[in-house]
Specification:
The longest helix is centred in the first third of the chain and has 17 residues. Helix 1 crosses helix 4, helix 4 runs antiparallel to helix 5 and helix 5 packs across helix 7. A hairpin with a 5-residue loop joins strand 9 and strand 10. This protein starts with a helix and ends with a helix. With 329 residues, the protein is α/β, with parallel strands linked by helices. The relative contact order is 0.10. Helix content is 39%, strand content 20%. It is built from twelve helices and twelve strands. It has a six-stranded parallel sheet with strand order 3-2-1-4-5-6. A six-stranded mixed sheet has the order 7-8-9-10-12-11, with helices on both faces.
C-alpha cells in the first residue's frame, strides 16, 4: 500500500507547482479515453479556479461521445489547431510514460517544468514533480484528492468529469479497481447532482451502427488457444474505414475475448497504417499484462496494458500470444 504521508506530500508539491506558474499546457495521452479527457478538463477547471490560464491539447482526435464534458470543445487538436507557441509549465495527466504524450511534447520549452499526474504502476516518474498513485482506479481519483487538498468546492461540471473518468476506468464500477474509496467519491459526486444513470447509459450501453459493424467483424475473428486460456481478436488497417467506425469504437472489444469462461488473457490487435500493430491486453488476474507489455516497449496496469509491435499482424499475434502463454505457465 502507498505511504499516505508520502502521497500527501506529492499532492502538496503538485499544488505548489500549480501556484508557482501562471500559464500552463495541459496534455493527456494519445488516443485518449474517458479518464484521459476527463482528467484534462478537470485540471483545466482547477487551474481556472486558482486564477491561472491554460491551453488544453491532445495529439489525437477526441472521442465524440465525451462531448458533453465541460471544456471538451476547448481541447485543441495538436495537428490541426496549435501554433508554434511553446510552454514553460506543463501538466500531463494519465500518461504512463513520456512518449505517450506524443507530438505535443515538441511544444515544450527547452527548460520546461512538468507536473506528472498518473495512476499507472509502470510510470517511471518523468516529471519535475510527480504524483503517481498506482492504487487509484483512475487519474481523476487523484485529481479529486488534489481538489480536496486545495479546498476548492466542486461544482456539477467538474463532478461530472470526475465521475466519467471513474465510470469508464472501472468498467461501470465492475473491475477489481473499484475500491471503497471509489464508491465513496462516486456517492459524493452523485449528491452534487451528477446523473449517474444517464452517464452509464450513454458511455457503457449505447453504440453507433458503425461500431456494431466493427464488432461483428471482430467477433467473426475471435480465436482461442487450445486450452482456452488466451483469446484474441484483430482489426485490420482498412476495417475502420470500411465500416465507418472511428478509433474510439475499438473500446470494449477486447473484453469479448476476456469474458469467455476460462479465458485468462484477452487481446485486441489493431493493425496501423504504418505497418505496425497495437495490442491491448486484459487479464482476469493470473497474468501481469503490464509486465508483458513492458517487454514489448509498452506498459499499463497488472490487468490492463498495451504495447506497439513493429511487424506484420501475423507475426505480432504469434509473438505476443507466445509471450502471454509463457507468462501463464
Amino acid at each position: 500500500m502507498i505511504n499516505q504521508s508520502s502521497y500527501s506530500m506529492q499532492l502538496d508539491e503538485a499544488l505548489a507547482f500549480m501556484k508557482t506558474y501562471d500559464h500552463f499546457l495541459v496534455v493527456s495521452h494519445v488516443q485518449p479515453d474517458g479518464d484521459a479527457i476527463s482528467s484534462t478538463v478537470v485540471v483545466g477547471w482547477m487551474l481556472e479556479k486558482l486564477g491561472k490560464t491554460a491551453v488544453l491539447i491532445n495529439e489525437s482526435e477526441l472521442p465524440s461521445r465525451l462531448r458533453f464534458l465541460h471544456q471538451f470543445d476547448s481541447i485543441l487538436n495538436y495537428k490541426r489547431d496549435v501554433t508554434q507557441q511553446t510552454f514553460d509549465a506543463i501538466i500531463s495527466v494519465d500518461c504512463a510514460d513520456f512518449k505517450r504524450i506524443g507530438e505535443v511534447a515538441s511544444s515544450f520549452a527547452p527548460d520546461a517544468k512538468l507536473l506528472n499526474i498518473d495512476h499507472h504502476p509502470t510510470n517511471n516518474g518523468f516529471g519535475t514533480v510527480n504524483v503517481i498513485r498506482a492504487e487509484a482506479a483512475a487519474t481523476v481519483e487523484i485529481l479529486y484528492d488534489l481538489i480536496e487538498r486545495a479546498e476548492i468546492a466542486l461544482d456539477v461540471n467538474c463532478a461530472t468529469a470526475i465521475y466519467t473518468g471513474l465510470l469508464t476506468d472501472t468498467g461501470g464500477f465492475r473491475y477489481s479497481n473499484t475500491s471503497p474509496r471509489v464508491m465513496e467519491i462516486a456517492s459524493h459526486l452523485l449528491a452534487l447532482g451528477v446523473s449517474g444513470n444517464e452517464l452509464a447509459d450513454h458511455l457503457l450501453e449505447k453504440m453507433t451502427m458503425a461500431k456494431l459493424k466493427l464488432l461483428q467483424l471482430a467477433l467473426n475473428r475471435l480465436t482461442f488457444t487450445d486450452n482456452l486460456e488466451i483469446g484474441w481478436v484483430y482489426i485490420g488497417k482498412d476495417d475502420l474505414r470500411n465500416t465507418g467506425a472511428v478509433p474510439e469504437d475499438l473500446e470494449g472489444i477486447v473484453n469479448y475475448a476476456l469474458n469467455v469462461d476460462g479465458v485468462e488473457v484477452g487481446i485486441l490487435f489493431k493493425e496501423t497504417e504504418d505497418g505496425a500493430v497495437k495490442a491491448s491486453m486484459r487479464s482476469a488476474g493470473k497474468a501481469n499484462v503490464a509486465a508483458i507489455a513492458q517487454a514489448f516497449g509498452g506498459g499499463g496496469h497488472v490487468r490492463a496494458a498495451g504495447c506497439r509491435i513493429e511487424g506484420s499482424l501475423t507475426t505480432s499475434i504469434e509473438e505476443l500470444v507466445e509471450a502471454v502463454r509463457k507468462a501463464l505457465i
